[in-house]
Design a protein that fits this description.
The structure is a homodimer of 413-residue chains. Chain A is an alpha/beta fold and 413 residues long. Chain A has two domains: 3-214 and 331-412, Zn peptidases (Aminopeptidase); 215-328, Alpha-Beta Plaits. Chain A is built from twelve helices and 15 strands. In chain A, the strands form three sheets. In chain A, strands 2, 3, 4, 6, 7, 8, 13, 14 and 15 form a nine-stranded mixed sheet that branches. Chain A has a four-stranded antiparallel sheet with strand order 10-11-9-12, covered by helices on one side. A two-stranded antiparallel sheet of chain A has the order 1-5. The longest helix of chain A is centred in the C-terminal third of the chain and has 22 residues, at 296-317. Chain A is globular and about 75 Å long. Chain A starts with 7 loop residues before the first helix and ends with a helix. Chains A and B meet through strand 5, helix 8, strand 10 and strand 11 of A and strand 5, helix 8, strand 10 and strand 11 of B.
Chain lengths: 413, 413
Amino acid sequence: MIADCIEMDRLSSEIEELGNISEYPLPAVTRVLFSDADLRARAWFKERCLSADLSLHEDAIGNLFATWLGQDPDLEPVATGSHLDAIPNAGKYDGVVGVLGGLEAIRALKASGYVPRRSIVLIMFTAEEPTRFGVGCLGSRMMSGVMPLARAELLQDENGLGLNHWRGRAGHVSEMSDVLLDRGAFSSFVELHIEQGPKLEERGIDIGVVEKIAAPAAFRFHLTGAGGHAGAVLMPDRHDALLAGAEIALAVEKAAITSGSADTVATTGVFEVKPGAINSIPFAVKMEVDLRDTDMAARERAEKMILTQSADICTRRGIECSLETINSDEPAVCDANLVSLVEAKSLELGFSTQRMISRAYHDSLFMARLSPITMIFIPCFKGYSHRPDEYSSPEAIRKGVAVLAETLKSLSL
Amino acid sequence: MIADCIEMDRLSSEIEELGNISEYPLPAVTRVLFSDADLRARAWFKERCLSADLSLHEDAIGNLFATWLGQDPDLEPVATGSHLDAIPNAGKYDGVVGVLGGLEAIRALKASGYVPRRSIVLIMFTAEEPTRFGVGCLGSRMMSGVMPLARAELLQDENGLGLNHWRGRAGHVSEMSDVLLDRGAFSSFVELHIEQGPKLEERGIDIGVVEKIAAPAAFRFHLTGAGGHAGAVLMPDRHDALLAGAEIALAVEKAAITSGSADTVATTGVFEVKPGAINSIPFAVKMEVDLRDTDMAARERAEKMILTQSADICTRRGIECSLETINSDEPAVCDANLVSLVEAKSLELGFSTQRMISRAYHDSLFMARLSPITMIFIPCFKGYSHRPDEYSSPEAIRKGVAVLAETLKSLSL
């Protein structure tokens, strides 16, 4: 049996080892796109793939394809994968379970003696996290053509350094056009991931089978008021950008709570103040807001409320507001046959399943433009993610890898 | 006449030259304590003092004393001075007018042929601005003993580097105890400064004579909530530290507005969010709040309101709040004789005057513990300060220097 070929101790120690490749010490994991930690993680991961006898290809922005060549290499390959980058102060499972778990699934298939007809490709996507450039799923977004290359070349990080600077630093110098893949490039794509929500754990379910991925939208506000000495400018004379930002952040919260859908979530995750000195009135704030729902109508209601209220707040406070839509993505619907296949394989292995909606953002959202997709979710402790105490048990991971391996086998027969 | 010996072109070009010694290009000036820009500014200023034949002494934390030796060096000297450090994105006049203007006053007195009986000491104070360690007026605060040496040694910047690290880097290695001065160390102290408020300009007054300096208090909040993935945690399950901070910042504003005194000002100048990623719920916020009034009762009412409301907000949102008082200073009352002397000298020079209260924070506040003090204010454009468009005209500065020179002469006769 394939499941018996999964070496969970090896996988657990690899997860631990990778967690140590971080800008901050464990349990906090930080690997920002093309930072030293990210580059070291990539190098480490490539070694692991080579040890498993996979052949490697990297595109112009560092998306990594590790291929187990099938008996019929002319057929479109089956793909799996996820990401290894991590936001500041995150945990060691988000993305990692899909990449290292995908590698373990392939190693288990090999160990079981299986030989695939279609090639199986394990993808490590570049920058699923938006930390460097403010845009999530950069790798799959560009691969699928949702972000045109011309727009990608304009991306800048907070220091004004662009994608070309960073990919060059990482040694990726080929033409950017090689990133774009055709629809049908893969026969199917299945991503293994921690749930990042509490439902599976609460209900004692082994495997979540994803039917739909929520539609995220993201906005960036640049608020500009008037600075001045904190001791010298009287309260009625102020145009304090921080206070406008504070009101907007509270309006963002309210818009999510009153959208009419219990699933609407909205978060002000970035809030940067200038000059940021205790004795100086803040003259500028940069805010980034993330808004999601699977229900597009509710999301749009919340969005409208945020935009109307932020305009009112800024007018009242004499603050200039420039608003930029970072992304406004469509939800993705998973392939019904793949959903059924993952369910069937889980049941064969004796695992309980539940169909679910992913409210978190994944590369699968964009891979859905290229091929049929679904996702395999496993429980994680209290649903925690993007924090150092993020945790999935070895047993939960083992079950996810087993389902992934059986699914990849079926799809590559 | 002394006023005719003021070389305003020289002083203007020195102000410009010093403005260029900055971490950012003009018009934004940034010189944080013991940063490279601050060290270069100090070196440049020492050259200027030596060119004016002043003798130099530096204490263990870099307070610089440039002395014009009087005929009777056993008498307590007269002192003047201010600071050269600048918060991020500030202007080129705050502090600088008092230091370089003080130097010009001394040069004009020398050029006029005057020889003082008491020595005249020009002081450049270390870290009037709180940027590095979060505490304003560090130099004069330690000199006057308001901050004990043992507490100063515990100060840390945001990277955990202490005062001893930074003063060592700047080459100050003597015993810290040499910073402390005795009451009566100076016979009087007069500080020239831009008003940092709009009153003098609005009313067309040449010289503000300071009778009282407002009492500032400063607080630091550490808010700790729960992080998580922005897509995955539903709104009712959140403990978002940023939203608690937003409510507190608005409560701080309201406390100042409703204190019962029109002079109460309160500012949240520092607001730092962790992890600061768009797709992550903020789990921690560091806020620094500055609260001032000349009316201690109003300030205390506002403080009480801030503390009560922040506790309520944090309880309601399930946020842990730790609160630290950074400083809570007493107001300083200026010496009546010095105030009258500055007024008299201004009138002799044909300048209009107005007695006023300083709502901004100055080294004079702490020098008042060591000797009689007053301050000479000059108008600045719209009252702007701590911003790149801070401006005082050469004519306004010339008048301030003339009054300072005549005052120093009277005090050192």
